[in-house]
Amino acid sequence: MSDLDTFRAEARAWLEENCPAEMRTPAKGDEDVCWGGRNFVFQSEAQKLWLERCVAKGYTVPDWPKAYGGAGLSPQETKILRQEMAKLGCRSPLNSFGIWMLGPALLKFGTEEQKVHYMGQIARGEIRWCQGYSEPGSGSDLVSMQTFGEDKGDHWVVNGQKIWTSYADKADWIFCLVRTDKTNKYQGISFLLFDMETPGVSTKPIKLISGNSPFCETFFDNVVVPKHQIVGEINRGWDVAKYLLGHEREMISGMGGDGGVTSIGAAMKATLSQEPVLRAQMALFDVDNLTFRAHGERFMDEWKTGKAHPAYSNLMKYVGTELNKKRNELVMSIGGSQALEWESERANGGSKARNWLRTKANSIEGGTSEVMLNVVSKRILEMPGG
Amino acid sequence: MAMTLNDDQNMLRDTARDFMAREAPVTHFRKFRDMGCKDGFSQGLWKQFAEIGFTGILIPEADGGMGMGQIEAGIVLEEIGRNLSPSPFLTTSVAAVEALKLADKAMRDRWFPGILAGETVIGIAIEEGVKHRPEKIACVAQRSGNGFKLTGQKQFVVQGTSSDMLIVAARTAGAVGETDGLTLFAVDKDAAGLSMEAARLVDSAMAAHVKLEGVQVNADAVIGDVDGGWAVLSKMLDAGRVGAAAEMVGVGTGAMDMTFEYLKTRKQFDRVIGEFQALQHRAAHLYGEMEGARSIVLKAQSLMDEGHAKAEIYVAAAKAKAGLACNLSVREGVQMHGGIGMTDEYDIGLYMKRDRSLNEFFGDAYYHADRVATMNGY
C-alpha cells in the first residue's frame, strides 16, 4: 500500500470513529452550519462534539501547518480527506471567512505572532470574521475606496463606511481595507484587523430581494486601531486584498453547486417527463455541472502544485456563479407555481424562491462577472488595452 | 489520480506537438485536400505515425503495442485536432483497437501487426441513419453454414473505402431497439456482397455508404460474444467518443488561439480590435468553455483508464461539452475574423468544417446530453 492509501484508510477510520451520526446527514439550511465565534449557539451536542474533535485533530483546517492549528496535510492528503468526508456524508465541522479568506492571507503576509494568534483562533472556531471591502461609492472600482485611517503615532483613527459586509452583525472581528495615504491610489491602502466591539463601530443589516439580510452596512466613527493590528506593510494592503480576493473567488466558485455531482433532475422526474424542452435544458445543465466539477478538480490540482495561472480563480468565479444562477432558474421553472410561494410551510418558507433570488448576487459579490471577464481577458489571454 | 498530466504524459505531449506541427500542419491537410486524395489522408503520414509509435498506443504491450490509456491517446488526438492532421488514428488506433482488444488471440494477431506497422486501416460500420442510434441497428446477421450471412446497409463509415477491414455491428437476435442480440463482425473489404460508395465530406475526409448483400463470414469473424456485442460496441463507441472529444479540444483550442492572435493584430478604428470590451468578454467566455471541455475530457479519460463505474456518464458529458465548446470556438473564430474568415485562403474555416464532422461522429451533443439525463435518472 502506498503512503496515500495508508492515509486514506486511517482518515476513513478516524472519520467513522469520530464523526457523530447526526453530522452525517445533509445540512437543511444555514442554521445547521457551524460558523463558530464568540456568540455562536450550537444546534446540538453532536455539532459541538464534531467541531471539538476536528479542532483537536487539526481537521477544521487540514492543510494548514500544525503550529497554526491545522493538521499539516499535503494537498493530496487534503483531497483524500475531503473525498472520504464526502463519501461518509460528513458535514463541514466549521465554516468561516477566517478559514477561506483571512487565513491564507495571514499565512502569506502575517507575522509569526499573528499566524499563531489569529490562525489558531480561526482553526479553533473561536472568532468569527467579516470582510470590510466595498463602499457605497466603490463597488467594482474597489480601489477608489475612501474609508480613512488617520495616523496617530501608535494607532490609527478610522472613519468611513463599508457596505455589503457579510454577516457583520454576527461577526466578532473585521479585516478591513483602510486608506492610510490619500495621495497614492493603489499604494495608499492598509489591511487592518479590529474587534467589532471597538467603540465607534456600528452595523445595519440590508434587506435584500430574497427577504433575508446576509449583508450589512458598517459604519466607523473615530474607531481606534492599534498599529500592530495591520497585516503586511503600511500602504501595501492592496497586495493583501488582491491575494485574498483570489481565495474569495475560489470559494464563491465552489458555490457552483452542492459540492457533488448529484443531479437535481432525478428528484423532479415527474415534472421533467411531461416537459421535454425543460428536460432538455436540465440535461444541458447537467453536462455543464459535470464539466464544472471536473474543471474545479483540475483547477485545484493545478493551483496546489503552482501550475495554475494566478488569475485563474477569476475564471472559476465567473463560470461557477453563472452556473449556480442557471441551476436556480431551472429549480424555479420545474417547481412551477409552488416555487412561487413565499411563506407557506409546504414551500418550506419560500426557500426555493429565496435561494433563487440570493444567487443573483453571486455574479456581483466578490467581483462582478463583467470584471471577472475583464481580468481573464487582460491577464490570462493578454488582450491589449488599458 | 490528480487531474494534471504526469511527466511521461507531458513528454508524450511535447513529442506529439512537435511531430504534428512539423509533419502534418494545416498545409499538409491542404495539400492532400487540393489533390483530391481518394483516401482523404496520407498513407505516408500513417506510416510515420507507426514509426513514432502512435498507431499502437492503445494496443497492449503483450500484443506488441505501447499499452497506454485514453489519456495518452487523447494527447495525440488533441495535437491532431490542433493541426487538422488527417489520419485514420481515431477510427483505427482508438475505436477499432478497443474493440479488437476484446477479440480472441487469432483475431488480434490477424489485425494488430498491420495497425502497428501503419499499413492497416479499419472502418467502423455502425451508423444506419443520418443520426447516431446504435441501439437501433437493423442490419441482420443470419446463421449460415459455418458462420453468418450479413444483410443491410451502413452509413458515415469514415475512410471506409480505404479500409482493409470493417467492424460491422449486426443483429443476431432480438428486435430493433434492444441492446441484447447484437454481434460485432470483422468483415474483410474484399468480401463478396460488400460494396461501398465513397463520399467526400464537408471537412474533406472520405466516408462510405456500405451495402451488405448477403455477405458470408465465418464464425471466427465474430468479435466478442454472439448476441453479446453491446459490451464490445459500448467499449468501442466510448473510446471513439472520448477520442473525438479530445480531438475537438484540439480543434477548438487551435481555432481559439488563431482567433486570439488575430484580435491582437487586426486594426480597425485606429485600434487593435482586441482592445474592444465587446470582443474581450466573448474571448474570455470562450476560453472558459474550452477550459471546461478540456477538464471534463481529462476526467472522462482518467475514469475510463481506471475502469470506473462512472466513466460512461462522464464520457457522454465530455463528448457533449467538447462538442458545444469546440462549436462555439469555430463560430466565434469565423465571426471575429470577419470577411477573411469566410475565405478558403484562411485556415479558420477549415476548423469550422472539421468541428462539424467531429460533432456528428458517434453521437452529437444533444444525443449525449440526453444520455446524461437518462443516466441521471430522468
What can you tell me about this protein's structure?
- By secondary structure, chain A is an alpha+beta fold.
- Chain A has 3 domains: 3-95, Orthogonal Bundle (Butyryl-Coa Dehydrogenase, subunit A, domain 1); 129-236, Butyryl-CoA Dehydrogenase, subunit A, domain 2 (Beta Barrel), CATH 2.40.110; 257-380, Butyryl-CoA Dehydrogenase, subunit A, domain 3 (Up-down Bundle), CATH 1.20.140.10.
- Helices cover 44% and strands 14% of the residues of chain A.
- Chain A contains 11 helices and 8 strands.
- In chain A, the strands form 2 sheets. Chain A has a 4-stranded mixed β-sheet with strand order 1-4-5-8. A 4-stranded antiparallel β-sheet of chain A has the order 2-3-7-6, with no helix packed on it.
- In chain A, α9 runs antiparallel to α11 (369-380).
- Chain B has 378 residues and is of the alpha+beta class.
- Chain B folds into 3 domains: 7-121, Acyl-CoA dehydrogenase/oxidase, N-terminal domain (Butyryl-Coa Dehydrogenase, subunit A, domain 1, Orthogonal Bundle); 124-227, Beta Barrel (Butyryl-CoA Dehydrogenase, subunit A, domain 2), CATH 2.40.110.10; 231-375, Butyryl-CoA Dehydrogenase, subunit A, domain 3 (Up-down Bundle), CATH 1.20.140.
- Chain B has 11 helices and 10 strands.
- A 4-stranded mixed β-sheet of chain B has the order 1-4-5-8. A 4-stranded antiparallel β-sheet of chain B has the order 2-3-7-6, with no helix packed on it.
- In chain B, a hairpin with a 2-residue loop joins β2 and β3 (147-158).
- In chain B, α5 (89-100) runs antiparallel to α7.
- The radius of gyration of chain B is 21 Å and the shape is globular.
- The relative contact order of chain B is 0.12.
- The model of chain B has no long low-confidence stretch (mean pLDDT 97).
- Chains A and B meet through α8, α9 and α11 of A and α7, β10, α8, α9 and α11 of B.
